[in-house]
Amino acid sequence: MSEKIRLLEELVQIAEKFDLLEVEFQEGDIKLKIKRKSGKVREEKKKKELPQGTRSIVSPFVGTFYRAPSPGAPPFVNVGDKIQKGQVLCIIESMKIMNEVESDVDGKILSILVEDGETVEYGQELFMVQVEGADV
Amino acid sequence: MFEKVLVANRGEIALRIIRTLKDIGIKSVAVYSTADRYSPHILLADEKVCIGPPPPSKSYMNIPAIISAAEITDADAIHPGYGFLSENPDFAHIVEECGMKFIGPRPETMRIAGDKIASKNIAKKLDIPVPSGSEEVKDLKELKRVIDFLGLPVILKASLGGGGRGMRSIYFEEEMESAFEMALKEAESAFNSKRIYVEKFFENVKHVEVQIIGDGRGNVVHFGTRECSIQRRHQKVVEEAPFIGPVEIVKNIENDAVKLASHLKYRGAGTVEFLFVPPDRYYFIEINARIQVEHPVSEEITGYDLIKEQILSVMDEKLYIKQEDVKINGHSIEVRINAEDPETFHPTTGLIKKIFLPGGPGIRVDSGIMEGNEITPNYDPLLLKLIVKGKNRNEAIMRLKRALSEIVVEGVKTNIALIKRIIEDKEFLSGTATTKFMKKYERIG
């Protein structure tokens, strides 16, 4: 009996250590069943996972975001447009200098995350793109 | 009137400046690199802008990124703190060209202050004593001639140098050639200029400096002296205010500092540095055209917020303090707690797991870190400054001992143990320590 209690204690310890919800154990022919906790709390802390094959394009500068080369001109890209590596996606005005931001991938624009004329900081996400060739 | 000021710095000094901005009702903008996302100065500022990746050249010294951050947040002025762009006259010029105020001296003054040969010549003209030395030295033959005249030891200095870099001392004639080559190389790589000069090297001396603030029109007030003789490789470790020396000498040093700053029509906060050669000689060495790391000891003995006075003097080009209002009271000591190995003095890195700061009467902590912050190799190893004040030097030292027994920093190696040893040292306690003091604590590296 005391041996079984020790085993139980050990299992409880293992369950606590690895954050397990359920541990089933059978000795004859060894049957083991482990259920992990859903880990919701931990998941939420993690950065939200992007759907497979999508990624963001971030601002390499601090400045003002412009979607078009000049006021009134059509925007460089719209949602749904196919884009190519090296294609200009927007302009970031920094110290009165217009810096063109190019795509570093082939793909498709899924969404535009910044409004025209809005200010952006270094590393801020500008576009969400579906990378071409990536599995959906 | 400034409505919003951008603070182009990080760590304790960024936080220090933001605190004063809050006190005087001016909005603050913090800028940060991706390595400093969770630093306290970001959390306390009214607005924040990420300006680049961790390397300083791409963030805290990235002029276009900082100017853009000021423009998109509508800041009226930029406070550069110390280090980084604080003594860069080109940056100051660009800031003012963009219609903002640079919280520091005018670019022309910064150029003179940054050029040690030029500022020494101005001091000489004003009858302020300077160490005997040379103008620019271009080759070994010239160096030899100067050394024959001055006698050894001498020190080679980069004219545009600062922060202890670009300096080489020569004790023996055999060292002359290698020291000259190294100084030239260092001057060129660090300051982009090959101009170096030679000065008589004083080792057993006291480093004394005067805190000044000017209105940019020739009016200057000083906030007394500081003594920073305890330095390692020209990096200060312990700083005190006031300098306890012969009354007449202290008065002359203060007056000379004001005379020089006034001649330069100095604007904002600055420090004029001198060497005191006991018993009665002193020499001007350089002007530091910025607020300094050790400014709190002067605040403690005068009761003035120097960052506030600095901002007001630049904003209004006017002084709100008269010299006779500045009274020196008590004694203050600052020690710099660095993330560094106490044996090798090398900077250390790691995650701040736990931090407990001392308190009680006479204790002030200017810190730039919180639990959970990562100390990366990208920046200066200064973690926090411990500042104490007492009615006299003895009381200040006792409080410093107490504070050092309370402080806990876990996760990175620090120099706390070293500082504890320094303040038990008889030479330190007697107040006779000179710039040679730290030599005995150096073992490796």
Oligomer: heterodimer
Number of separate strands of chain B: 21
Strand order of the largest sheet of chain B: 14-13-10-11-12-15-20-18
Specify the helix fraction band of chain B: 25-40%
Radius of gyration of chain B in whole Å, from Cα? 21 Å
By helix and strand content of chain A, what is the structural category? alpha+beta
> How are the strands of the biggest sheet of chain A laid out side by side?
3-10-8-5
Order of helices and strands of chain A: HEEHEEEEEEEE
Given as residue ranges, the uncertain stretches of chain B (5+ residues, pLDDT < 50) are none
Report the mean per-residue pLDDT of chain B as an integer: 95
Largest interface (CB within 8 Å) is between: A-B, 12 and 16 residues
User: What does the largest sheet of chain B look like?
Assistant: 8 strands, antiparallel
Shape of chain B: globular
**Which spans of chain A of ≥5 residues are poorly predicted at pLDDT below 50?**
39-46
Span between N and C termini of chain B?
49 Å
Q: What portion of the residues of chain A fall into strands of 2 or more residues?
A: 35-45%
Helix content class of chain A? 10-25%
Describe what is shown at a glance.
The complex is a heterodimer of chains A (136) and B (445). With 136 residues, chain A is α+β, with helices and mostly antiparallel strands.
What report would you give on this structure?
The complex is a heterodimer of chains A (136) and B (445). By secondary structure, chain A is α+β, with helices and mostly antiparallel strands. Helices cover 16% and strands 38% of the residues of chain A. In chain A, strands 3-10-8-5 form a four-stranded antiparallel sheet, with no helix packed on it. The longest helix of chain A is centred in the N-terminal third of the chain and has 16 residues, at 2-17. Chain A starts with a helix and ends in a 5-residue tail after the last strand. Residues 39-46 of chain A have low confidence and may be disordered. Chain B is α+β, with helices and mostly antiparallel strands and 445 residues long. Helices cover 32% and strands 29% of the residues of chain B. Chain B is built from 14 helices and 21 strands. An eight-stranded antiparallel sheet of chain B has the order 14-13-10-11-12-15-20-18, with helices on both faces. Chain B has a five-stranded parallel sheet with strand order 3-2-1-4-5, with helices on both faces. In chain B, strand 1, helix 1 (11-23) and strand 2 form a beta-alpha-beta unit. In chain B, helix 4 packs antiparallel against helix 5. The longest helix of chain B has 17 residues, at 247-263. The A-B interface holds A 61-64, 94-95, 97, 119, 121-124 and B 34, 49-53, 59, 64-65, 67-69, 71-73, 98.
